[in-house]
Amino acid sequence: MKKFMHDFKVVRNDIINPDYFVLYLQCSEPLPSIEPGQFAEVLVTGSPSTYLRRPFSIYDVDYENRVVSILIKSVGDGTKTLSCLSEGDTVNMIYPLGRPFSDPEGSDALLIGGGVGIAPMLLLAKSLHSKGCNVDVLIGGRTEKDIIEPWVYEPFARVFISTDDGSRGEKGLVTQHSIFHNKELNYNKIYACGPNPMMKAVASLAYSRNVPCEVSLENLMACGIGACLCCIVETHEGNKTTCVEGPVFDSRELAGWH
């Protein structure tokens, strides 16, 4: 798939809480097709300690207005610099990168996002819903502040929430949510993105119920084109680059996950 490098103008920066924000970025040219699960490498200017581009999942796409939105968690100098951007500022991005999610072989899908790992699930929920799938979205977080914009999924999916401390939704890990109490687990595919321990637990549960599971890895990706090899992941077919051959993998491909 062809990659593009464009300057985008910041049209909105929605600060959700001290940890999370959503950048709305408008391109001067028509946007190429962007598939759910793909990501962008963002050049961070104004942060002397941030030398390399930062990878972020594409949160949503508005083709009519040529706007791409990115959900970001402030965790370091680069993301904190991005959090200070305001309307009219410019951001350079290389996109769309990586292997996207694939469709389920059936009509029922469960999408699970932990914290900022929910970022690629909005575009996926929209896409599956448009294809006639029944979509459930399970959003997990340590506390209520990690539950980001659950209402944006409601036009396309049933939404479930869990938090470790019980401050919102059911108390406990996502794999402890009552949605998993059904012994048959009637989904044709489960999709997950978030911390590796969470994804491994979801993948293991899906594997035990014979449900295909795709995970989006959040390895550090410096170049986004498979050149620097810093994002290597071990699979049953040898080492693969997360940025080009992922970030989406069938969990059964990954060595040591089952």
Would you spell out the secondary-structure blueprint of this structure?
Layout: E1 4-17, E2 20-27, E3 39-43, E4 54-57, E5 60-62, E6 67-73, H1 77-83, E7 90-97, E8 108-114, H2 121-130, E9 134-141, E10 158-163, E11 170-171, E12 189-193, H3 196-208, E13 213-216, E14 232-235, E15 238-241, H4 242-245, E16 248-250
Parallel strand pairs: 8-9, 8-12, 9-10, 10-11, 12-13
Antiparallel strand pairs: 1-2, 1-7, 2-6, 3-4, 3-7, 5-6, 13-16, 14-15
Describe the 3D structure.
The chain is globular, with a radius of gyration of 18 Å. With 258 residues, the chain is mainly beta. 13% of the residues lie in helices and 36% in strands. The chain has four helices and 16 strands. The protein has helices at residues 77-83, 121-130, 196-208, 242-245; strands at residues 4-17, 20-27, 39-43, 54-57, 60-62, 67-73, 90-97, 108-114, 134-141, 158-163, 170-171, 189-193, 213-216, 232-235, 238-241, 248-250. The protein has a seven-stranded antiparallel beta sheet. It has a seven-stranded mixed beta sheet with strand order 11-10-9-8-12-13-16, with helices on both faces. A two-stranded antiparallel sheet has the order 14-15.
Class computed from helices, strands and strand pairing: mainly beta
- What is the count of DSSP helices, taking H or I runs of 4+ residues? 4
Shape estimate: globular
Share of helix among residues?
10-25%
Q: H/E series, N to C?
A: EEEEEEHEEHEEEEHEEEHE
> How widely separated are the two ends?
31 Å
Q: What is the mean predicted local confidence, pLDDT?
A: 94
Instruction: Please mark out the parts with pLDDT under 50 across 5 or more consecutive residues, or reply none.
Output: none
Q: Count of DSSP E strands?
A: 16
